Amino acid sequence: MTTYRLKGVSVLGAAPTDLFITDGLISDKSASAEVIDAAGLVALPGLVDLHTHLREPGREDAETVETGSRAAALGGYTAVCAMANTSPVADSAGVVEQVWRLGREAGMVDVQPIGAVTVGLAGKQLAELGAMATSAANVRIFSDDGFCVADPRLMRRALEYVKAFDGIIAQHAEEPRLTEGAQMHEGEVSTRLGLTGWPAVAEEAIIARDVLLAEHVGSRLHVCHVSTAGSVEVLRQAKARGVRVTAEVTPHHLLLTDELAASYDPVYKVNPPLRTAGDVAALRQALVDGVIDVVATDHAPHAVEDKECEWAYARPGMLGLETAFSIVLSVLGEQWELIADRMSRTPARIAGLDGHGTDLAVGSPANLTLVDPSARRVVDPAELASRSRNTPYSGTTLPGRIVATFLRGEPTVLDGKAVK
Ligand SMILES: NC(=O)N[C@@H](CC(=O)O)C(=O)O
Ligand SMILES: [Zn+2]
Ligand SMILES: [Zn+2]
């Protein structure tokens, strides 16, 4: 194993120092080391994504575990949680083990499969949660993401079931009866454009119900892609009561608004939809306050034919892994402690990923990323490692650049380029 010396690196914004990586661990010195000039670079614990769609098995034309892993490493990630809405659905030990194995083979980030809550994401019958938990994939997070576990009885049983092994149910909060035919956020812009709206209350009603269920059962609930100011208030109250609930916000919901739908460019079509400037402000404040615990990408690659079509027919979702850090940097500024907490430490703790999200201290596993906060780049979809192109930031100049990423002491990215 090569030993590395990160020369003149700033750990979370502190004064420049030298950091050594030896035998997969952070160390304080080494006899001979390959020197990486890290002057002006900031070291962060490797980023951890609680919400990634890798599309394998089933839609390898949109993304594979390998291409998604490369996109993640280039985005500064060392671990990603892979959502279960693949084809076949990751609702059995066999499928979650397949995804886990593909992640190991790709070897660029730790790929932690999420298991489905219900068989085939159909919302009718609980999947084999226990078998997935005891499989080689060691699943702890379960989600029907893409769909809401709308049936309250099933949701209660799922929460009860995972309590035994401290598992967690990650809910895509969308009351389906309130979003039938929905195309975008319900509000002034949808009225103007004549598009069917997805009202904020469809999200808030499910979160309110689920925090009550989680409180009743005493289980852990995680709320995916929170998008409204009202949801933040429901979460704030639940947390004040001691409910075991955590929540995530996506980079795009921290930055973009429903006004973009006026372009009718389906690259802006996403679930939950882009909301108002008021929602964006509330989400930013909640992330700073800790009412929202983490940033998760909801990286949702889609093939060209599923995305570059009429708005109504386009699939919802946008890429996230290769731009998330830059968006968060532009939103939060150089608050390194806060960024490390919301993008690494807390997501690692929620997912129970040992060895990730740890402080960059001597003896810790060398899962880290080096960022250049002063760099600027123009996003070019053709240059992305993702197999898909549906980034909403095409042509936009973003701050910050991922220079290097290390997974257990081995570089996955050097000089801003993937090592494999
Ligand atoms: N976010 C999206 O708009 N789409 C996701 C599903 C989801 O996260 O709900 C997808 O799988 O494409
Ligand atoms: Zn979702
Ligand atoms: Zn998703």
From TrEMBL:
<keyword id="KW-0665">Pyrimidine biosynthesis</keyword>
<feature type="binding site">
    <location>
        <begin position="53"/>
        <end position="55"/>
    </location>
    <ligand>
        <name>substrate</name>
    </ligand>
</feature>
<keyword id="KW-0862">Zinc</keyword>
<dbReference type="InterPro" id="IPR004722">
    <property type="entry name" value="DHOase"/>
</dbReference>
<comment type="function">
    <text>Catalyzes the reversible cyclization of carbamoyl aspartate to dihydroorotate.</text>
</comment>
<dbReference type="InterPro" id="IPR011059">
    <property type="entry name" value="Metal-dep_hydrolase_composite"/>
</dbReference>
<feature type="domain" description="Dihydroorotase catalytic">
    <location>
        <begin position="42"/>
        <end position="229"/>
    </location>
</feature>
<dbReference type="InterPro" id="IPR002195">
    <property type="entry name" value="Dihydroorotase_CS"/>
</dbReference>
<feature type="binding site">
    <location>
        <position position="145"/>
    </location>
    <ligand>
        <name>Zn(2+) 1</name>
    </ligand>
</feature>
<feature type="binding site">
    <location>
        <position position="172"/>
    </location>
    <ligand>
        <name>Zn(2+) 2</name>
    </ligand>
</feature>
<keyword id="KW-0378">Hydrolase</keyword>
<feature type="binding site">
    <location>
        <begin position="316"/>
        <end position="317"/>
    </location>
    <ligand>
        <name>substrate</name>
    </ligand>
</feature>
<feature type="binding site">
    <location>
        <position position="145"/>
    </location>
    <ligand>
        <name>Zn(2+) 2</name>
    </ligand>
</feature>
<feature type="binding site">
    <location>
        <position position="298"/>
    </location>
    <ligand>
        <name>Zn(2+) 1</name>
    </ligand>
</feature>
<feature type="binding site">
    <location>
        <position position="51"/>
    </location>
    <ligand>
        <name>Zn(2+) 1</name>
    </ligand>
</feature>
<comment type="similarity">
    <text>Belongs to the metallo-dependent hydrolases superfamily. DHOase family. Class I DHOase subfamily.</text>
</comment>
<feature type="active site">
    <location>
        <position position="298"/>
    </location>
</feature>
<dbReference type="InterPro" id="IPR050138">
    <property type="entry name" value="DHOase/Allantoinase_Hydrolase"/>
</dbReference>
<protein>
    <recommendedName>
        <fullName>Dihydroorotase</fullName>
        <ecNumber>3.5.2.3</ecNumber>
    </recommendedName>
</protein>
<feature type="binding site">
    <location>
        <position position="225"/>
    </location>
    <ligand>
        <name>Zn(2+) 2</name>
    </ligand>
</feature>
<dbReference type="Pfam" id="PF12890">
    <property type="entry name" value="DHOase"/>
</dbReference>
<feature type="binding site">
    <location>
        <position position="271"/>
    </location>
    <ligand>
        <name>substrate</name>
    </ligand>
</feature>
<dbReference type="InterPro" id="IPR024403">
    <property type="entry name" value="DHOase_cat"/>
</dbReference>
<feature type="binding site">
    <location>
        <position position="53"/>
    </location>
    <ligand>
        <name>Zn(2+) 1</name>
    </ligand>
</feature>
<comment type="pathway">
    <text>Pyrimidine metabolism; UMP biosynthesis via de novo pathway; (S)-dihydroorotate from bicarbonate: step 3/3.</text>
</comment>
<keyword id="KW-0479">Metal-binding</keyword>
<feature type="binding site">
    <location>
        <position position="302"/>
    </location>
    <ligand>
        <name>substrate</name>
    </ligand>
</feature>
<dbReference type="InterPro" id="IPR032466">
    <property type="entry name" value="Metal_Hydrolase"/>
</dbReference>
<feature type="binding site">
    <location>
        <position position="85"/>
    </location>
    <ligand>
        <name>substrate</name>
    </ligand>
</feature>
